[in-house]
Each structure stands twice: as structure tokens, then as C-alpha cells.
Amino acid sequence: MPPRSNPTARQVRLGVELRKMREAVGMPAREAGALLGGGQPQISHIETGRYGISEERLRRLAAFYKCADTALVDALAAMTYEQRGQGWWENYRGTLPAPFLDLAELEHYATYLCSIDITHIPGILQTEDYAHTVFSQTIPPLPQADLDARVAHRMERRKIFEREAPTTHKAIIHEAALRMRFGGRKITRAQLKYLQEQCERPSITVRVVPFASEGYVGASRAMLYAGGPVPKLDTVQVETALGATFLDAQSHLESYRTVFTAVEAAALSETDSRDLIHTIAQEV
């Protein structure tokens, strides 16, 4: 079977975690490859996500690396059964950039989500008109077909809240994002009303950092934190000038957990946040 030309973010992540195990015991790739009978090239392809790996082989490698973290090994073993083409987002492959698909995949498998947004309503909580306005401001302008695909994809991401066991999402939004009038008063008012409705879902928590807050830190750090089945498989997605970036180094995860905790401490309570959203909607 030829190597994958474009592995998904989760396929890459599986390989990265195996590489971390191997490097933790100081084992050369050629020695690990010999265990599987394929040599160093095979291990290199597995660790970059270009080759898949079976559960049996993954557990053999984990034992060879003397990994005692059984919860991590079990979580990685479950990932070996994931195949490209299974998720709804695959319908957009070739139409949307890969990071859009990787984000949908990340949210689909996340055990929980935490987000911080400064200037926009979180993408997964946007109305169709609001999302259309946001994507319409892309520079250079998007072709109509691409614009429609991005909006449709964003709307489908909501599926995680419609499941029998919906994903929990804790969203912290700065007051600035609530007052930005993307698309004008009508679209902004409808967006704020929709956000109020989402606050009623047991799985969604929205808290607002008001302009009056004196304890808010990390004002420019919009991010999405996705919890994995074990903490070592958590992932952070951040937007940069070059597009979306996914981070999984433990130092990065710890840093963003600290940032989220600090921002959360500066936010209003759920009740006060709902009241502020209602007040702003009335003012628009």
C-alpha cells in the first residue's frame, strides 16, 4: 500500500505519539522498525502518519517502548480503527482547505471543548447569515462556490450538539465580539438571539468578559482547546496570520490551560453573561 499523500491531523497525531514513546526510551527508529520487520523507513512513515498501523502492532510497539500509560495506549489503539472517509467533513475534501476538515474532525472526537474569542462569535455558534458575512470579508474575496462551502461546513459542525451525548462546550467571549455589527443590525441582533438560545443547552456554557473587567489577560489569544480521551491527547487550535495551527506539545497545552483559567476567572457568571447578551441585543 503506498504512503498517504495527505494524512489527516489525527493520523499525524497518532504517529507523533508513537514517536514520543520511542524517543522517551532513546530507541533508534531502525531498532523499532526491526520489530515490525520493515526497518527504519516503515517506522518513519508510521510516525509521520503516512502509514496506518493496526491495533496489534501499536500495542507491540508500546510494549517494546515500555510505555506504562495504559490509558494512553488504549486511546491510541482506538484511533487505529479510524479511517479517512468516515466523517461528514470528508464531503468537503478537495473543496475546502485541509485545516477546515481537521477542525471538524477534532471537534467530532473531542470529549469537551473550551474556547476564547475576542472579535467574533465562536464559529460553531454562528448563524448562517453571520458566518456568510464573516467569510465574505476574506481578502482576497472568495469565489461564490468556496464561500457557500465554508458557510455550509460551519453549519454542519453543529452536529456535535445534536448527538445523544452532545459534546460540552465552554465558550468565553469578549464583550467586543458581541458588539461588532457584522452584516448590520439585523444580522447582529439575530446572532445574539441565537447565542442566547444556545445558552439554554445543558452542554453549552457561555460566559462574557466585559469591557469593565480589570483582571482580563491574554486579550489577543483567541483559541480552541479540545479535550482528548486522556489529557496527553488534548489539542489546541489557534489562528495565525498563516491560518489555523494545531498544537499538542505538553508545554503548549499547559500554557493554554493556564490562559483559559485566567480568562475564565475574569468572565462574568453564566447568569450575568446572559443578561449582558440580552442587553446588547436590545441596544443593537
Describe this structure in words.
It comes from Streptomyces cuspidosporus. InterPro entries: Cro/C1-type_HTH, DUF5753, Lambda_DNA-bd_dom_sf. Pfam families: DUF5753, HTH_31. Residues 18-72 form the HTH cro/C1-type domain. This is Transcriptional regulator WhiJ. This protein is an alpha/beta fold and 284 residues long. It has 2 domains: 9-79, 434 Repressor (Amino-terminal Domain); 89-283, Endonuclease, Chain A, CATH 3.30.870. It is built from 12 helices and 6 strands. It has helices at 9-24, 29-36, 39-47, 55-64, 70-79, 98-109, 128-136, 144-156, 175-179, 185-198, 250-266, 270-283, and strands at residues 112-117, 168-174, 204-209, 223-227, 235-240, 243-247. A 6-stranded mixed beta sheet has the order 3-2-1-4-5-6, with helices on both faces. β5 and β6 form a beta hairpin. α2 packs across α3 (39-47), α4 (55-64) packs antiparallel against α5 and α7 packs across α8. The longest helix has 17 residues, at 250-266. The chain is elongated. The model has no long low-confidence stretch (mean pLDDT 93).
List the helices and strands and how they pair.
Layout: H1 9-24, H2 29-36, H3 39-47, H4 55-64, H5 70-79, H6 98-109, E1 112-117, H7 128-136, H8 144-156, E2 168-174, H9 175-179, H10 185-198, E3 204-209, E4 223-227, E5 235-240, E6 243-247, H11 250-266, H12 270-283
Parallel strand pairs: 1-2, 2-3
Antiparallel strand pairs: 1-4, 4-5, 5-6
Short description:
InterPro entries: Cro/C1-type_HTH, DUF5753, Lambda_DNA-bd_dom_sf. The chain has helices at residues 9-24, 29-36, 39-47, 55-64, 70-79, 98-109, 128-136, 144-156, 175-179, 185-198, 250-266, 270-283, and strands spanning 112-117, 168-174, 204-209, 223-227, 235-240, 243-247.
